[in-house]
Amino acid sequence: NRMEIKTYVLPKHKKIIKDAIEFELARGGQIYFLANRIHTMPKILQEIHELRTGARIGMLHGRMHEKNILKTMHDFREKRIDLLMSTTIVENGLDISDANTLIVENATLLGLAEAHQLRGRIGRGNREAYAYFLYPNRKLQEKAAERLEALELYSWRGAGMDIAKRDLELRGCGNILGKAQSGVAYKVG
Fold this sequence. Notes:
Helix 5 runs antiparallel to helix 6. The chain starts with 5 loop residues before the first strand and ends in an 18-residue tail after the last helix. Helices cover about 35% and strands about 15% of the residues. The longest helix is centred in the N-terminal third of the chain and has 13 residues, at about 15-25. The chain is of the alpha/beta class. The chain has helices at about 15-25, 40-50, 65-75, 110-120, 140-155, 160-170; strands at about 5-10, 30-35, 55-60, 85, 100-105, 130-135. It has a six-stranded parallel β-sheet with strand order 1-6-5-2-4-3, sandwiched between helices.
C-alpha cells in the first residue's frame, strides 16, 4: 500500500522546516533530518530547537559508539524520539513505518542515486510521505541543479530505473574499454 513520496526541492528556509516538522508531528509521525556533515550537526540542532516545534530530537552518526547508535535507533523505533538528525547512515536499510518525512539540509552534497535511496527510507507504510530536499540560498551549480530537478521529476514508486538512467546521463559512463582503463581491458576483442 505504499504511495508516491511527495518530493519538494526548495531553498532552505526556517519556515519550510518548521512547517514540515509540525505537520508530521500533528499526524503522529516521525522525521528523518539529514545533515550529512558531522561537524555542522550541533549548529543545525540548535537551529531546530529555536523553531520550538516540540519535537523530541535524537542524533545519529557513524562516529558514535555502537552502544549509543543502538540505543538511539531503539528510542526512535519506540517513538521516544520524534526527529532523528543523522548522516547518511540511515540509508542502510532502516524500516520504520511511522517515519514519513525526510528533510535534507543541503541536498547539493548528495548524488542522485544516494538521494533516491534516502528518500526510500520514508513512506514505508500506508501513509503519504514527504521529502524536502533543501539547498542553500545561492545560485546552484549546473550539475547540482540537474540532480535535484531529476529527483523531483522521478518521484513515483518504481522510478529507480529512470533515476539510474538519468544519473548515467549526468555523470557519464566512464571509459570501460578504453586505453585509460587499468589492466588490459582495451585489448579485449
